[in-house]
Write a structure and sequence with these properties.
This protein is of the alpha/beta class. It is built from ten helices and 20 strands.
Length: 380
Amino acid sequence: MTSLLDAEPAVLVLEDGRVFRGRSYGAVGETFGEAVFTTGMSGYQETITDPSYHRQVVVQTAPHIGNYGVNDDDAESRCIWVAGYVVRDPSRVASNWRSQRSLDDDLRDQGIVGISDVDTRALTRHLRERGAMRVGVFSGAAAARPVEELLDRVLASPEMVGAALADEVSVDTEYVVPALGEKRFTVAAVDLGIKGATPRHMAERGIEVHVLPSTTTPERMLEVGVDGVFFSNGPGDPATADHAVALVTAALEARRPLFGICFGNQVLGRALGFGTYKLRYGHRGINVPVMDRTTGKVEITAQNHGFAVDAPTDRVSDTPYGRVEVSHVCLNDDVVEGLRCLDVPAFSVQYHPEAAAGPHDSAYLFDRFCDVMGAARAQA
């Protein structure tokens, strides 16, 4: 483990000119992205390896991070995807029987530029008031340059609105996650930034999962997804996801059972004719309350999204594929958190029922997917 006492000076510069100084954490250099905060006190390894955080600089609101280290089992994808990482008090010791190395070492080895010893409470309040925005993190020699020069570099970096990122995080080739025990269903999962826990949840329920690249064709998707199709979470602006929308449209026209999570919820919304929009600062963390309107139950959910579906929450909507209702809403701000089609076998949620680090209140949605596929098979 690299000594945190030897960390070099670092500076964080927001696009509105606000500056925070600290020490380098992880790799030394410079990075740019969208500054967002997440409220989880644990689960940081899941956060940094979640492809949905691609091109985002994540601020941890919990002050003490890294205390249980990292391991080879809890990563949600093939690498760390965050563009940068911001913590207040990084743990000097990683203490857990499953720990294989420190968080600092993992960040450094994968080239992730971070900053520590930052007043993350003040930074979070700033983002809460001003909204998510572009940011640069600079350490080592880069941090010694004039702030005005660093700000110019931040303002020259790309924005999240209009960013097409799903293809950058998706797999290149298909792979299969076999069902555990007796195989009940076969599903095509379109990888828009899928997390490893998602096919595991389905496999535990007897689903053989064929994970397909985001560039797959409708014909291939329907060929392998004989019982259902799934659209995963992912990064970027859903307004750019025309190919994913075309895949969803093909599934709806074939009346193939469909389940979408996060980005998958947004592309289903677009296929149904709804718009999407960017939230001021988004929902990120593991303590977001959502009501399932179909049951009246309130769930504490894990979330990571900066965009949302613009659909009416007070009535059933008529779409090209029949009636659709908003099935879930966020109790903090009434943002649409789920859609349910009433005339075709399709539903989605904006949050993450697969969250390995918890909470697990909404894992039942994978059972609901099985129920939808079972009902469709019985009617065939």
